[in-house]
């Protein structure tokens, strides 16, 4: 339970900090949530517009998606304080369909992707997260930090020289202000200060309004104008499935990252089907769909200190108010301020400890290789799913190689001459990587008439091992010697009885 001492502010546990009820009781915590939602909303606007352009659709689709995703996931999601909206990963996946078949097929694919995510969530796909090693997670975080920074570089090229001192000033604010006070989120201060400077001084620099037109009305019901047929399903199925997997992967890994940052646990299964519900609603309101956003989530959680669903909900509400009601004000915000905020997010997201010389010296080289592979592939492809997939594959190969060396075979000979018995004691886990060399560990020609293979300290995991044992016993019989396998546990015995001698000439 939280403890409150006389004259002190209430002390909240991590779980209470996620509670909407506890937050509503605390004006200080509520203020943090409200201001965090406002900062995230401001940062979402140019991002949503940019991702719409990547997807090849009207900016309104990205802005509407960010509103509906954030508001919906605030109620149905499993990770408090995580921000979901239109994302670059989804834009990249769906862009080819927009180009080839148009917006209506694109929206239909968004809705179908939501249905897939609900099915995947309810079928327990979140359990697969346990197979993603920590080194892949670190690579994922570092790659996203790099991609966030890279996405801001175009905003610094071919721009008036005044952009650079403005960005520098905003960076001083976002990095320096937290050292003085946390009363107001530093990103919000940077946005307000730079906006006042550029407006009052009539400075001509790129603004949010330069990114595209802002919507002037609320989103309405949208029914995609596509034939309800098998042919339509064949067109949208591949894109919808890819969108569902990429969106879930990015959302679940972002949720795990926030779990680590806040020292709390989230409901991954609920988050999975919640993402599906949010995408279905987004599709039927004419939005481009989306998933969790690492950049905006880090602004919300790390930079602004938010911990509850209130900030997520308000981010969506503020976004709609800003673009529909206060579009004229939002359009004059200089991009320099938002660039500085995203650079700060990039810096805060990167796991600097992972590349410290002391860490690299201490960490196994295989772990470092997995992390680097994940970073390189993700940055090169701009595709989280491919990067994480390659990282997991490299981790599996490294693990198999490492475990394969743990298997040992010890030979002892007992008995009197003429009545000797050779006993081989196998120690370790036997699977395809470690059992391939098992066949070569025996002295077939030199062994006496009787041979015992003792397996009490090992376990048979796959058909490769059964085949290796079959090959070994067959080799001894070829030399006219009697071999007996003892010590198999129940699971290994059952597997050998089912597969032994049935794998084709002992292979």
From TrEMBL:
PANTHER family, per the entry: SULFATE TRANSPORTER YBAR-RELATED (PTHR43310)
Domain of life the protein comes from: Bacteria
Gene3D superfamilies from the UniProt entry: STAS domain
STAS domain segment(s): 424-499
Xref: InterPro entries: Membrane-Transporter-like (IPR052706), SLC26A/SulP_dom (IPR011547), STAS_dom (IPR002645), STAS_dom_sf (IPR036513)
Assigned keywords, A-Z: Membrane, Transmembrane, Transmembrane helix
Chief site of localization: membrane
Keyword DNA-binding (UniProt): no
Subcellular location: Membrane
Transmembrane segments: 34-55, 61-77, 105-123, 135-153, 159-177, 189-208, 228-249, 317-350, 370-399
Membrane topology: Multi-pass membrane protein
Pfam families xrefs: STAS (PF01740), Sulfate_transp (PF00916)
Protein name as catalogued: Sodium-independent anion transporter
């Amino acid at each position: 339970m939280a403890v409150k001492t006389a004259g002190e502010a209430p002390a909240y546990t991590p779980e209470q900090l996620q509670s909407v009820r506890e937050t509503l009781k605390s004006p200080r915590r509520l203020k943090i949530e409200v201001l965090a939602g406002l900062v995230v909303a401001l940062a979402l606007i140019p991002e949503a517009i940019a991702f719409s352009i990547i997807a090849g659709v009207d900016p309104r689709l990205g802005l509407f998606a960010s509103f509906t995703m954030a508001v919906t996931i605030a109620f149905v999601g499993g990770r408090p304080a995580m921000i979901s909206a239109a994302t670059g990963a989804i834009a990249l996946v769906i862009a080819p369909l927009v180009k080839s078949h148009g917006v209506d097929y694109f929206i239909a694919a968004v809705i179908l992707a939501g249905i897939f995510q609900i099915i995947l969530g309810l079928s327990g796909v979140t359990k697969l997260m346990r197979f993603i090693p920590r080194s892949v997670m670190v690579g994922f975080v570092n790659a996203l930090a790099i991609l966030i920074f890279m996405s801001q570089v175009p905003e610094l090229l071919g721009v008036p020289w005044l952009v650079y001192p403005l960005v520098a000033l905003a960076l001083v604010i976002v990095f320096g202000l937290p050292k003085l006070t946390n009363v107001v989120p530093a990103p919000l201060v940077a946005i307000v200060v730079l906006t006042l400077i550029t407006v009052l001084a009539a400075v001509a620099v790129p603004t949010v309004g330069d990114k595209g037109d802002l919507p002037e009305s609320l989103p309405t019901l949208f029914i995609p104008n596509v034939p309800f047929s098998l042919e339509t399903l064949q067109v949208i199925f591949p894109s919808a499935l890819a969108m569902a997997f990429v969106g879930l992967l990015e959302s679940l890994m972002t949720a795990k990252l926030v779990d680590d940052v806040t020292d709390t646990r989230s409901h991954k299964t609920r988050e999975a089907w919640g993402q599906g519900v949010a995408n279905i609603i987004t599709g039927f309101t004419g939005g481009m769909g989306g998933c969790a956003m690492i950049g905006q989530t880090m602004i919300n959680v790390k930079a602004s200190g938010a911990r509850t669903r209130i900030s997520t909900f308000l981010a969506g509400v503020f976004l709609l108010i800003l673009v529909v009601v206060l579009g004229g004000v939002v359009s004059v915000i200089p991009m320099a301020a938002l660039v500085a905020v995203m650079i700060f997010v990039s810096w805060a997201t990167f796991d600097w400890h992972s590349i410290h010389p002391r860490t690299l010296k201490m960490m196994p080289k295989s772990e470092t290789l997995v992390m680097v592979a994940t970073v390189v592939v993700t940055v090169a492809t701009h595709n989280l799913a491919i990067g994480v997939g390659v990282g997991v594959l490299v981790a599996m190969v490294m693990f198999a190689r490492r475990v394969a060396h743990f298997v040992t075979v010890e030979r002892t000979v007992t008995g009197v001459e003429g009545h000797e018995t050779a006993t081989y004691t196998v120690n370790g886990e036997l699977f395809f990587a470690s059992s391939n060399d098992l066949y070569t560990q025996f002295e077939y020609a030199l062994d006496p008439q009787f041979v015992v293979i003792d397996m009490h300290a090992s376990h048979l995991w796959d058909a490769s091992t059964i085949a290796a044992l079959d090959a070994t016993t067959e080799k001894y019989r070829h030399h006219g010697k009697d071999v007996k396998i003892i010590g198999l546990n129940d699971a290994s015995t059952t597997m050998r009885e089912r597969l032994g001698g049935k794998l084709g000439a002992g292979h």
